[in-house]
Structures are given as structure tokens and as C-alpha cells.
Amino acid sequence: MSYLAFAWLASIVYGMYNVIGKLTSKYAIKNIWLFSFLYGLLTLLFTVPPALVNHVGIPSHWGYIIVSGVCNALYILFFVLAIQKLDVSVIGPLFNFRTAISLILSVLLLGESLSTIQLVLISIIFIAGIFVSVDERFSIRSFLQPSIFYGFCFTFFLALSINYINRGIVTEGYWETTLYSTVFSQICLCFTAPLFLRDITKVNRFQMAGVTGMALCLAIGNIFANRAFAVNVSVSSAITSLPISMFIVFALSRIRPELLEKHTLKVYVVRFAAAFVMIGAALAISL
């Protein structure tokens, strides 16, 4: 298949990742601590086989790996919180905060400087982020709510985790960093066990199916995305950044409004417009 096919497949699978996550949090697993633990565990289980096939070794330096693992655990916790509280049509575009946050982190952690154009694009992303969360009230208060804070936190810790993973890959290798970072992430999530021990004995197939679907979508999406990026980065980035999850939930809101979310057409127009502005600014920064 061409890189375009892989890019589109990655975009669709990533979109399903958000939708399955929302369905799981709404109908299957209410305990966010249990949800986070199971999701982290399944992600680890899907990471082990390819790591072993690629002859993963033991890292010689653990600093970046441990920090990235801790940040990834925090990302998972805040993502589960966000997906429980926010609409899917809000969560998808919030991932574009990651690009802006990554640039800010490069200044704080690496001492890099930002150009005027980059500062403008970062501002555009954050301003558009206000509009992507609007509801029928069309008030700025829709952005200034705790659930949006969860969304900002998961993108912050995701960006921070990726930053340290990339550093670890340079010195230790891809699979060594990826596998052991995931291991440390799961170790961190184990500390939340007292908050879900009563519920873990009641986990059923329906609940596991949702979490497994999420972890599988992430694993498959990453494989497709990596195949696409290996040939063409700019076009693949544009395709994989598309808010496919927004299109899915918009269609569902017309067919099954009680399933996930339902808003007026005016709200969705504003959210889609803001999402594409965020995507455009994020891509402009990346190019």
C-alpha cells in the first residue's frame, strides 16, 4: 500500500480510539482508576511482543526512561478523566495543544528560542482551543471549566512524555525506551490500586473489550502512522491530524443522539472550524 493509504488508516484508527474510549467510560467502566490501570496494562501487553521480536535489550541509562514513564502514567490518568467529562468532539482537537506545548517545553528544557511566527501560531492554537469547547451557551465559561483543565493536562503530560522518550531513543534505542517507559508507567499506575481493588474483581468481558479496543487502536494506529511517516512526513501529518473522531460523533449525533453526544448544528460548525484552525496552525509549526 502507498503511504497515503497508511496515513488514512492511521487517522481512522486514531479516531476510533477516542470514540471507543468515550463509549467505555460512559457505559462500561465508571471507575477512572480502574480504567487507567487496565488501559495501561493492555498497552504494555501489546508493546511486549514487537519489542521482543526486535531483540529489545537492557538500557544503560534510565533517567529519561523513568521520567517519560511517570509522565505517560499522568497522561493516561488525565486522558481518562477528560474522556469521561468531555465530548469526543472536544477531546480530538485538544491533541493539537501538544504541538504548542512541545515548543514551549523546548524553550524551558532545552533553552531554544521561538520565532515571532511560532509565537503567533502558538497563540492561534490556544485561542482556537477556546472555541472548540463551546456549547449552546456560546460562553467563554464553557472553556473555563475543570474538564478542560483535564484536557490541557493530558496534552501537557503527553508532550512531556514524548519529549523524554525522544531523548531516550537517541541514547538507548527505540524499543528499549518504548518498552521500559511503558513498564515504569504501569508501575506508577499500580500505586492507585487501593482506589480500584474492589472493582477489579468485578471486571467483565464487556469492560475488557472496551479497554482492549482502545489499546489495540493505539497500537495499530502507531504502526500505520510510522509506515506513512517513513515515506512522507508533511502529508502524512496533515492526514493523521484530521479530526476523524469529530466526524464519527457528529454522524452518530444525527443517527443515535442518546449514544454519545448531541448539539445544535451551529455548535458543531464552530467546533469544526476551531479544530481545523488548530490543525492548520499545528501543521504550520511542524513544517
TrEMBL record:
Question: Which parts of the chain span the membrane according to its record?
Answer: 6-25, 32-52, 64-83, 95-111, 117-135, 147-165, 177-197, 209-229, 235-253, 265-285
The residues forming a coiled coil are: none
**What GO cellular-component annotations does this UniProt entry give?**
membrane
One Pfam family cited in the UniProt record for this chain: EamA
Boundaries of each EamA domain copy? 3-133
What the entry lists under SUPFAM superfamilies is as follows: Multidrug resistance efflux transporter EmrE (SSF103481)
Q: Which domain of life is it from?
A: Bacteria
> Which keywords belong to this entry?
Membrane, Transmembrane, Transmembrane helix
User: Which named protein is this?
Assistant: EamA domain-containing protein
Organism, scientific name: Candidatus Wirthbacteria bacterium CG2_30_54_11
